[in-house]
Amino acid sequence: MKEPRRITKGNFKHPLMDIFFLVVSAVVSGSDDWHSVVLFGKYKLDWLKKFFPYENGIPSHDTIERLFSSLCPQSFSTCFIDWASGQFQTIADEVIAIDGKRMRGSGTKLHPAIHMVSAFASKQRLTLGQLAVEEKSNEITAIPALLDLIDLKNGIVTIDAMGCQTAIAEKIISKEADYILAVKDNQRNLNQQVIKMFEMNKGKETSETFDFGHGRIETRSAAVITDLTFLDTKDKWAGLKSTIKLDTRRIHKSTGKEETETRYYISSSTMEPAKFNTAIRNHWAIENNLHWCLDVVFKEDSSKRRKGNSAVNFNLIAKIALKLIEKTDVVLTKPKKRESACLNDDFRELVLGLF
């Protein structure tokens, strides 16, 4: 990754690695803005000097913000992907959920908020890569570019209905992975045909699962059809081998209110229905274990980082911090782990893997 400050001035007091170590250490310890990063650094300067020189002390928040606003997000993302691949165990049969999240605090009246598209390994709770776009509709073009950055071989890529595009299906197959794509009215003809297939044939194989958590009883039934003879558009979809119908029934324990929902998918896999059921459920880990954590634990939506690439690059730092916190095998909530890292130098070193 290029040092962006060499392009502008070529003379600086704070080395790049000093700043990166400061920022990651501060963010795992509860800092959510540049001012609190600097405050952390001033209080913990002696501890920081155990690992890097900091010959000129702690940089100002303006210095840090200028660095991260000028840092090329594509280059930083490439470094992040290299780091993430080192954290990864195996991608075989891993559900890789692709989804976007709007960073609300990054927008102004003149500029729309950044929409971040991420690839998230659901079982290992690890972001594999990301790309920033200005509009949700741009996800369609961003997803293939994001997929190009990641090793997907033998993985299972899941995407919501916006990503149900022939070019995206072809890209996933070219990466030697399988796909499960949600089907809705943005692919009207395909959607209608899939619905009709299940009206004619309920599916030779079915699977039913139950969930009693979160104050509700949820039943999920998956049916799979692999005979695609009557699917007129099947040849347009690279590797297409099956269609899936997922019926969900929820009963809220407190009110007794019942909700039902039916969703349809296409896939290049011929897994057992039970595996489809699990894979589709695992897709939503990107909402619960990534997007929710960024909002609630790292306060992303309330952040006002708007200068240059600052918001995009801080998002990557937060994802690194989130993974470091999650892999720390201590029975504490994520906010409490950040609080403990702030208060206890030994715990912070444990989180950062410095032991």
Q: Would you mind describing this structure in some detail?
A:
It is a single chain. By secondary structure, the chain is of the alpha+beta class. The protein folds into two domains: 4-71 and 319-352, no CATH class; 75-293, Alpha-Beta Complex (Transposase Inhibitor Protein From Tn5, Chain A, domain 1), CATH 3.90.350. Helix content is 41%, strand content 21%. The chain is built from 14 helices and nine strands. It has helices at 4-8, 16-28, 34-43, 45-48, 61-70, 73-87, 139-148, 166-174, 188-200, 273-283, 285-296, 310-326, 334-343, 345-352, and strands spanning 95-103, 114-121, 126-133, 156-159, 178-183, 205-211, 216-225, 242-252, 258-267. Strands 3-2-1-4-5-9-8-7-6 form a nine-stranded mixed sheet, with helices on both faces.
Could you report the average pLDDT, rounded to the nearest whole number?
A: 85
Low-pLDDT residue spans: none
Alpha carbon gyration radius: 23 Å
Shape: elongated
Strand order of the largest sheet: 3-2-1-4-5-9-8-7-6
**Main sheet summary:** 9 strands, mixed
- Could you give the order of the helices and strands? HHHHHHEEEHEHEHEEEEHHHHH
Cα distance spanning the termini: 27 Å
Strand % is 15-25%
Please give the share of residues in helix: 40-55%
The DSSP helix count reads: 14
